[in-house]
Amino acid sequence: MNTSNNNDSSSSNCNKNTSLSPNLATHSDASMSSGRATQDSGYLGGNIWNPSYMNQASQRSPQQQQHLQQQHNQQFCFVNPWNEEKVTNSQQNLVYPPQYDDLNSNESLDAYRRRKSSLVVPPTRAAAPNPFQYDSYPAYTSSNTNLAANASGQYPSAYQQQQQQQQQQQHAYQQGAIPPSQFGSRFVPSLYNRQEFQRRQSLAATNYSSNFSSINSGANQGTSPIPAISSYRRLSAYPPSTSPPLQPPFKQLRRDEVQGQKLSIPQMQPCSSKNDLQPVINVTPKFRRASLNSKTISPLVSVTKSLITTYSLCSPDFTYQTSKNPKRVLTKPSEGKCNNGFDNLNSDYILYVNDVLGVEQNRKYLVLDILGQGTFGQVVKCQNLLTKEILAVKVVKSRTEYLTQSITEAKILELLNQKIDPANKHHFLRMHDSFVHKNHLCLVFELLSNNLYELLKQNKFHGLSMQLIRTFTTQILDSLCVLKESKLIHCDLKPENILLCAPDKPELKIIDFGSSCEEARTVYTYIQSRFYRAPEIILGIPYSTSIDMWSLGCIVAELFLGIPIFPGASEYNQLTRIIDTLGYPPSWMIDMGKNSGKFMKKLTPEESVISTQKHRMKTIEEFSREYNIVEKSSKQYFKWKKLPDIIRNYRYPKSIQNSEELIDQEMHNRECLIHFLGGVLDLNPLERWTPQQAMLHPFITKQEFTGEWFPPGSSLPEPSGKQDNTKGQQTDRRNSTNSLNHDYVYNSNIGNGGADSVDISTSSKGNVNVLSNFPNNYAVSHSVQEGPTNEFNKLHIVEE
Ligand SMILES: Nc1ncnc2c1ncn2[C@@H]1O[C@H](COP(=O)(O)OP(=O)(O)OP(=O)(O)O)[C@@H](O)[C@H]1O
């Protein structure tokens, strides 16, 4: 053998495999002819019939071929499928079939050989029933076999057929037919007419049965003249239309043969229940490796959960440390510019997932994710590694002004948590701890869920149900009652600062006391988020806890409408929207406000003739010209301008649109809400309801609402004025359809019941019944509210 030749070396390997037995060698083609073996190896080592090899072989000189053959004669025996009668090792590979009696005239030799060879393995198929039963098909058996129907017209059973075949075979031998033993290992049990055999012969079938190999060996020794019948039958023995699937999977069998395993062909057995199946369950399936705890793991687990171990097993040099993982940065911008590179430009600490906060002060808060970002800093979800508790940590900006204000927040929360509401009943955020990390004050809070803005967003900015609004409002009012009694002002009440305790419960808590102050120390004048900013703050007059009630009114309206009721784009725009919706504030507020002149103008004597109002808003042009800015006109979010109209005409929930009764109920509730909002969104802070008063309103208490309601302790002699105010018609007398005239005198020294400390003298000149404004057919103009989100559904279910 030419060992310097690649082909030869590969063939040498093949020889090792195929030298097991001549017969097995004949069928070891599947793997060997699958691409790796070259043309020569097909001959030298593969020991298979290979058309390309045959071509090559035919092109070689007889000397070359003889030489090659001699090299391998001692190692294997190739059985030429066509040299049926006198097969010898020396000639079998070199001789073409002596006759091609079924060769089509237009068929090439190669095509013929391909057609005739069962070594061109057909695709694997499902197992078939006993193939002998196919012989009973009349169309086939009548012409080609002796297995015809008996006299009664019935076809013999498989067993009867076998018996019949054996008898026929014996008879045929006696008549001079060539016994299959003379064909080497080849025979077809049911067919021993030579020509017929030659036409239908398949090498594939002849070596699959273990019984069969022993029979063959017996036959070769001449001890068994009558071959036993194999329970498997070659494919080509079936009529084309009824060819049964191959069984068992030949490729696998050949592979097993190559690996030297003794073939054991499963025998057919009757099977009546699943217990008869006796499945073989591998305790340790192939391709599994041991895990570190001595169990085996699947390939899937090894490349997913156990990837690190797998890598380690693949390469001893592989090392892995969690600390070297790239950390996900949570802060934007993430470039370290201040505080030794720890902070970004905005003095925000640059937070990464898996950072540990508070180590310098014996704390260990593992950063998990970002929860929110605000003016004062960032709020991150953390795990206290010492207690395993999941919490929220507010990492305050490192600038002094924020630090000072946050210290105030911490003090107020401490006061609320420990002194004012130790039992945790009044919906204030709980603070657990505080520490300093890299010059940042960190406040540790209980972990809460979504804020109300996020809830509305999830609800596609559609309003919440009345019941849910009531539940939320009651809780907020409860907090505001406590704050008022404690003379504390939150100063930044908005949906973002009201958080659900859990995503599936309508319980909430008030957060962010970073702007809070004592009523007696109202140092800052520029407070509250714009949409929720009270008119007295915009105008610049002294303020009290009533600014929180204004914010509450804006929040309640937003919960109903889904979007802010006063979404001002600027302070000017904010005031314009408020006035458009609710009318002008009382004159004393405008006169008193430090900022009034910025947004308003005193009416000229000519203008005063047609209006009882002393002031008017500057036009956009006037304001823009004066401040050299481009003030844009208000974008209208609602078709209607006045609060009662906006509320009344808001689309109905889908669930009630088909029920007249439910619509009536809804409209009644809306009137109640309008009345409630009228009291809370009173432009006059002195007349605005306190949380205690609002708590008693029918909207909260669910008492019957008759269209009129006066808060206890109210010093207003004419409550109808309140109702008219809700229509935005009280103070905007130019547009007024009814004439009301309240003159208020601010006296901060008088502290009586009612709203805030105020001495009020009123003269009411009109009265309109709210209920009389109900449209007759209000259902017609309402669009349908789309379905709520899942999150909202959850709340809804809890509520209803
Ligand atoms: N305890 C908490 N649990 C879950 N999320 C929280 C918690 N505290 C705050 N958040 C989230 O972080 C956001 C910002 O928090 P917070 O309002 O306290 O920060 P801020 O800097 O004071 O903001 P603002 O600009 O409103 O003053 C909140 O809107 C909320 O979504």
Automatic annotation (TrEMBL):
Keyword terms, alphabetized: ATP-binding, Cytoplasm, Kinase, Nucleotide-binding, Phosphoprotein, Serine/threonine-protein kinase, Transferase
Family: Belongs to the protein kinase superfamily. CMGC Ser/Thr protein kinase family. MNB/DYRK subfamily.
Sequence ranges of Low complexity compositional bias: 1-21, 55-72, 158-175
The protein's name in its UniProt record: Yak1p
Domain Protein kinase residues, every copy: 365-700
Record PROSITE patterns: PROTEIN_KINASE_ATP, PROTEIN_KINASE_DOM, PROTEIN_KINASE_ST
Bias type Polar residues, positions: 22-41, 736-748
GO CC field: cytoplasm; nucleus
Binding locations of ATP: K394
GO molecular function: ATP binding; protein serine/threonine kinase activity; protein tyrosine kinase activity
